[in-house]
């Protein structure tokens, strides 16, 4: 009847206005496509929003279920209600009171492909846990792609290293399980330095990175360096590179003999110069010594005395009476040079003496 229809419409409107939860205001954000490594683990990021403020975790119940069966629980606070093949392998990593519904699944099986959907239930009060509102986000579900083999690490490095200079190799690998991060190891037994870092690339995908730094030697040329990634569940993958080392040019066999030769030449030149100067100095001192011993550069007193006597004799000869000249009786010249200069005068004087005696 018309009255019954109107009553139903009124009841529906009243329920809509009185309901503390509006379906249009509850939203969930889930990463919809992820790759999962069999035997390893996976983390499905999830968050939700609601019209209520500061809802405590004690009033919220988070549930993960299969999309095609609301009773096929992948995760539930009541462990007995979880599907047997998921029991003990799932847990919530986030706090529902912080709007975090992230799910972890460990020991991945081939059939764990989903899709998996999140569902939230709101209890009446903290003491009365009976639920009055339930909301399933069946349009935002996560589906997994199963991987039988782990991803291969990637290596980043220079083509050639230099002997004696630091060389760096970076190894990185992606994964989908930040709660059990893969471990990276190197084949070198004595590395100089290893630095590791972990970061999120984008929702649902993370990367572990290891940076190896060492000082290569000549023996490392054409050697291999391997980076191995060990995932949760003990599956491994590795990447290998070949190391090429450029030897440092060594010119010591040229430099050292050259330096020694130059040093010997310089020292020899200095010694020669010193000896020449020393010889010149001693030669000068010797000449001065002989000069002082001979009484100076001028004639000595003993040398002058005969000159005076000869001079006096010559004077006496001029004053004495002129005689007939005879070559034998002619006295020797007191000054040979003077006689040479006055040769003509001497001849004239002899002629006068001859004629005077006559």
TrEMBL record:
Domain of life: Eukaryota
Bias type Polar residues, positions: 305-317
Keywords: Membrane, Signal, Transmembrane, Transmembrane helix
Residues covered by region (Disordered): 293-342
Stored Gene3D superfamilies: Immunoglobulins (2.60.40.10)
Segments forming domain Ig-like: 153-242
Name of protein: Myeloid cell surface antigen CD33-like
